[in-house]
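Feature request, filed as a ticket because there's no other form

It would be nice if the structure record came with a short human-readable summary line next to the tokens. Right now we just get the raw output. Example of a typical job, pasted below so the devs can see what we mean:
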Amino acid sequence: MPLFEFTVEGPPLSAQTASRKAHRAWKQRVRTAAERVWDRRRNPLAEQLHILVDYYHDGPAIPLDNDNMVKPIQDALNGLVYVDDRQITYTHISKNRI
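Raw output as currently delivered:
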């Protein structure tokens, strides 16, 4: 399974946010960060994949459910890194205070 890693600065946004504009902007930030690292000449992967999301924060963690945090990230990578997020067979999410 290929390894692909990138960083997005700033707090994540929930899939449940009331602002569709903010939701689209967050997904675009994620995609832009991924595009900086992903070789755009490659086709999106078509195999089963794992995703690991580590959220680092100082101070109190944001009150965000893990599943709501990861969904916009997965959606942002559709068609770039993988064909569809249904290919993700394992998800690991952690919130870490630094």
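Something like this underneath would help us a lot:
The chain is about 30% helix and 20% strand.
Strands lie at 49-57, 88-97.
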